[in-house]
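pinging the channel bc i need a second pair of eyes. not urgent but kinda urgent?? the chain im working w is below, pasted from the shared doc
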Amino acid sequence: MLVFEIALQIRFWGPIVVFSIGAPAACLNALLFVAIKSFRRSPSAYYIVGQSFADVTILLIVLLQIVPATSVSASSIACKLIIFSLQMTISVAMSFLCLSAFDRWACTSQTAGIRQLSSTYVARFLFPIPFIICSLVNIPFLVYCDLIPPINFCWFTNDLFMRIGTLVLFPILTVFLPLIVLIMFGLLTCRNIRFVTRIRRQANQTRLSTWEHQMTRMMLIQTLLCIFCSFPRAIFVIYAVATIDQSADRSSDQLSILDFVDYLSQSVLCINFASSFYIFLLSSPRFRQTVQVYLKHQFRLGPNHLETMNMGTRGQTLAGRQMAREITQRTVQS
């Protein structure tokens, strides 16, 4: 029974902790990549904004599940909407993360034709596609999910779709396919970086190429963390699917252990949807500096040093010129 009590504590406190840490960070992440012009120049900014919106929605839905009035067992409508929304938003979030990994691979490629795929035009074109496709694919959850009497348990009402949902839609779209895509493009990006000393070689390297270099590092670290956080859930899904016919023969202790592993793997998976901002903050000095300046400017915490977003070069040059003029004037007067 101790395992069952621990599982209940994880189920209750896990969503609260993850939402408190991740939701404000995801909102700030989206705000920064929309408001700051230098961030918007990167094609990955579109994917990060879309992923941030999906992350906030996922964390909010998970948080509402600990409230009886808004849980999946509250009503038939709540069962349908919550299952559909959770499945759809997780697929959207993982799709945008895969698009970010694809963009970093294209950005670091030595082939000019592939590098053209990393552009704001392509990002604007691809931005609505995850929302549309994931919504259409998961519409059957609205039809074949309902409360099962007499225990009012939210589950599938159609046996065929139950197998499709548990064996195909949920494990493949939300776990295995994104995991494969992230690993593949992560390895390809690392291979490209080994052969290229600078991202997008140009005659004169601009601040955009420097920012793209840091964006690549940020996305690679996020991809690596996502892979590690998705593996426990993938292993549990494989075990659950492989032993689905033995579920009726399990004892109460075995069910308690499965519930504990289920809630624990869900909490670890939710780290994917709450960690993007913190990964960017830790892995990019320019992102940290820009966030600091932006927050000071918005909340009036200090003087307006917006020019320091240009890495402080311009301010130092103007100060040096002014000091040189003062020294020259003093020399002439003397």
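so The chain has two domains: 2-302, 306-334. and Residues 202-208, 304-334 have pLDDT under 50 and may be disordered. — does that match what u expected or am i reading it wrong
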